Amino acid sequence: MEFLRLLQTEAVLNLRRVLAIAIVAGLSNAAVLALINAAASTKSGERGRTLLLGIMFITVVAAYTVSQRFVMIASAKEVERIIHRIRCRLIEEVRHCELPAIELLGPTRIFNGLSKEIQTIAQSGNIMGIVTQMAVLLVFATFYLMWVSMTAFLLALGFIAVASILYFARMSRMNRAIHDAATAEYGLHEYLTAVLDGFKEIKLNDRRSRELAADVVNASLHAADARVKSQSEFGQNFVFTQDVFFLLLGTIVFIVPMLSDTSSDTLVKATAAVLFLFAPISGVVTSVPVFANANASAASINELERLLTQSNAGAARTEDQAPQEARQSFREIELRDVMFRFGDGENEQPFQVGPINLTFRAGETVFISGGNGSGKSTLLRLLTSLYSPQQGTIFLDGRPVGRSDTESYRTLFSAVFGDYHVFKRLYGIDPETLAEVPALLETFELTDKTGLVGNEFSTIGLSAGQRKRLGLIVAILEHRPICVLDEWAADQDPIFRRKFYTELITNMKAAGTTVICVSHDDRYYDLADRRVHMEEGRIAMDTREKFDA
Questions:
Q1: CB 3.0-4.6 Å disulfide test: which of 244, 344, 448, 506 passes with 163?
Q2: Does the domain at residues 1-147 carry the CATH identifier 1.20.1560.10?
Q3: Average pLDDT of the segment spanning 446-469
């Protein structure tokens, strides 16, 4: 099982101690049966024996209480430690992934691996210790049955063996049903994410809203049917187990006296032993779907980690190295025959950007224009090395940028992309630059909207345009030589848009920052040193008149 393999791989010595004490709990529980039967067979005049058995009974119950409590708490702690290590490892793998790998895996799969699947494994923490204790109880209660009556033991052993074979044959169907239910849940999750992420779009189009709602209903029904099927399989297995237990009890009561000369006292003890087996058998069977879900989650996590590790193969890791010092300057960046192609190989004509031949020089302001889908955003990702060129080379000051140079090269850039995320805390910003924030908030007309508390914004619950202003403030605070802006002005009102082009970009240029800005505002094109126009993934025009003059 993937779940047990995961525990075995990740566990430390504490888990072995938990299992050892679980065995103590199981033995204590089994001893309760033996002491009860012994006390029941004690004659009325044997008070000393009864007192001794009573003291032993209290001692065994105390041992069970302490050991079982330890098992439940310690197993939960150990599983949480394991989960913490796995989660941290996955986050590190994600952190070192490149953007195309993250886009290929998809945020839903990664988020589910870090949350839903991890939570499923966490819920198995207490169950693991309890099932171990019940399994031990089951083994020793069976041996006790052998001590009471060999005939009853042999019948029970054969009966349980046949029942187990039939039960595990049925388990394969239940595991498939659980896997199908998990897959259906993923499909439903994607539709629900679409509802929330595309809420504005569905509010503006009633037909889209109704069609999406129909897909959500169908996905929900499919997920419900899959869950019903998995629960039905579990229910059938549970009823099968109950029937097996009843038939086993009937075998002891009706068949054993026919096969051997068994006294009524022995038959009562054997029957009590079988009755005592009911709780651990039910517990083990009830835990099967929990472990099946945990097994499916462990398999999913292992697969996610494998894919992340595979995508990071050959990538330079920097955990044991000092953080990269930001490059303070550059002279020229040249993209020579750079090309990037989208698609998975199934599309005969995947969208391609390039070959691109383009040079950016320090201190210039470059506007990039072009229609939707012309490749502007992909060009920015290639320039900033978020996408690695599939063909061609990027040269920095005449030297090719190789894989080992990527981290250093990226320190040239600060950026506000179209889907920019504003972090509430100012991560990666030098503390001494925080003094610049109040003036920047005033310049960007956000003083009455948010403020700085320590190294965090008091709120980031702003409009799209205001969040982009915060994003540009953060980019300025990074003091990088190049600032990349992807349609930054698109969400600004006309007055602030004019301020952006006529004042903010001018101030950034005066500070020595190279500004590369995707823009559709043709009325401000003359404020740039040059304009690069793209069509169908290629450079259609590159004006350098003002710069070369």
A1: 244
A2: yes
A3: 86
